[in-house]
């Protein structure tokens, strides 16, 4: 490591006791180093006869609410067309982490809420809306129900109507975005937790057991309704857009291929328009402000 620092003419680590932390120069090298390793693996895969080494790899960072719905559909279509590709999914803690995750090389694609509210740092990113994400209030099945309830939502429920309604919630963190948190705060009452659990599956299971109501995305709410839960859209938190963001200047061939496939899927047309230039081999600059990807990028 000392030899590398000497060759580069920069200190990469702060050495404190038995530990080390990256300096600003180290952080600057991290992203390019990961991209070099990724390209090296892809070069090895291109000439390797070993199927375990020849599988292309795509790293995606995903905001938890974006895991289901449009992203799942795009991933399924992409993997059907590219069955040899291996997708590694990392959790994106918040939309504000998108730029750092892409810059550090941890992931090449992020799936998050759009539009990105990350200031000038996101100007270099290309973005592609995939669809909307609705939030539903799901209540336990009514006592004595003879069978599953129809998978149809009830009338919309306002945040103020959740006053004194116990809920099974995730640990304190943005449920989808800072915008949703602001909406809840502006609406008056705070959500009342009866239980706080770390897994989304546990929230649904505990709600179905009658512990308390909970907040779910559209797909999970419909699945819960088939088990007897009653659900209704949370007024003012519907139609939030989720989509992809990536840096077209550093995207690998497999990342550009995925972006092109996502663009084709998002158009919902058998004869989809040409993919955005940022998703084509060679890449291209994103519009300032991380505007939605289209043929003009």
Q: Quick one: biggest sheet?
A: 5 strands, mixed
Cα distance, first to last residue? 40 Å
Radius of gyration: 22 Å
Shape, principal axes of CA atoms: globular
Given the helix and strand composition, which structural class is it? alpha/beta
Strand segment tally: 12
Q: Give the spatial strand order of the biggest sheet.
A: 4-3-5-12-6
Low-confidence stretches: 269-297
Beta-strand share of residues: 15-25%
Question: Could you report the average pLDDT, rounded to the nearest whole number?
Answer: 75
- Quaternary organisation: single chain
Total helices: the number is 9
Keywords: DNA-binding, Transcription, Transcription regulation
Biased composition (Low complexity): 288-297
GO molecular function: DNA binding
Organism: Actinomadura algeriensis
Topology:
Blueprint: H1 2-8, E1 13-16, E2 19-22, H2 24-47, H3 51-54, E3 57-62, H4 70-81, E4 86-91, H5 98-104, E5 109-114, E6 126-133, E7 135-139, E8 166-169, H6 178-186, E9 192-196, H7 200-208, E10 213-217, H8 218-225, E11 230-233, E12 240-246, H9 253-267
Helix pairs in contact: 4-9
Characterise the protein shown here.
There is one protein chain. This protein has 297 residues and is of the alpha/beta class. Helix content is 32%, strand content 22%. The chain has nine helices and twelve strands. It has helices spanning 2-8, 24-47, 51-54, 70-81, 98-104, 178-186, 200-208, 218-225, 253-267, and strands spanning 13-16, 19-22, 57-62, 86-91, 109-114, 126-133, 135-139, 166-169, 192-196, 213-217, 230-233, 240-246. The strands form three sheets. A five-stranded mixed beta sheet has the order 4-3-5-12-6, sandwiched between helices. The radius of gyration is 22 Å and the shape is globular. The chain starts with a helix and ends in a 30-residue tail after the last helix. Residues 269-297 have low confidence and may be disordered. Keywords: DNA-binding, Transcription, Transcription regulation. InterPro entries: LysR_HTH_N, LysR_subst-bd, WH-like_DNA-bd_sf, WH_DNA-bd_sf. Pfam families: HTH_1 (PF00126), LysR_substrate (PF03466).
């Amino acid at each position: 490591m000392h030899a590398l620092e000497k060759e580069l003419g920069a200190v990469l680590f702060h050495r404190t006791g038995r530990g080390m932390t990256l300096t600003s120069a180290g952080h600057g090298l991290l992203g390019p180093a990961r991209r070099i390793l990724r390209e090296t693996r892809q070069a090895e895969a291109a000439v390797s006869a070993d199927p375990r080494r020849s599988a292309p790899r795509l790293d995606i960072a995903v905001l938890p609410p974006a895991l289901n719905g449009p992203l799942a559909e795009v991933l399924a279509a992409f993997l059907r067309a590219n069955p040899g590709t291996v997708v590694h999914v990392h959790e994106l803690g918040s939309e504000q982490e998108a730029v750092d995750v892409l810059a550090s090389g941890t992931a090449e694609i992020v799936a998050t809420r759009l539009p990105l509210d990350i200031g000038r740092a996101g100007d270099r990113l290309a973005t592609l809306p995939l669809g909307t994400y609705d939030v539903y209030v799901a209540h336990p099945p009514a006592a004595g129900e003879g069978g599953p309830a129809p998978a149809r939502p009830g009338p919309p429920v306002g945040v103020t109507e959740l006053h004194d309604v116990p809920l099974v919630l995730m640990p304190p963190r943005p449920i989808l975005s800072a915008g949703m948190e602001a909406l809840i705060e502006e609406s008056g009452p705070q959500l009342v937790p009866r239980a706080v659990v770390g897994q989304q599956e546990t929230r649904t299971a505990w709600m179905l057991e009658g512990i308390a109501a909970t907040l779910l995305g559209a797909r999970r709410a419909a699945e819960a309704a088939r088990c007897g839960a009653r659900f209704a859209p949370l007024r003012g938190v519907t139609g939030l857009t989720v989509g992809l963001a990536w840096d077209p200047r550093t995207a690998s061939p497999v990342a550009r291929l995925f972006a092109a496939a996502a663009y084709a899927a998002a158009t919902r047309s058998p004869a989809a328009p040409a993919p955005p230039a940022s998703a084509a081999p060679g890449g291209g600059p994103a519009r300032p402000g991380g505007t939605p990807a289209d043929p003009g990028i």
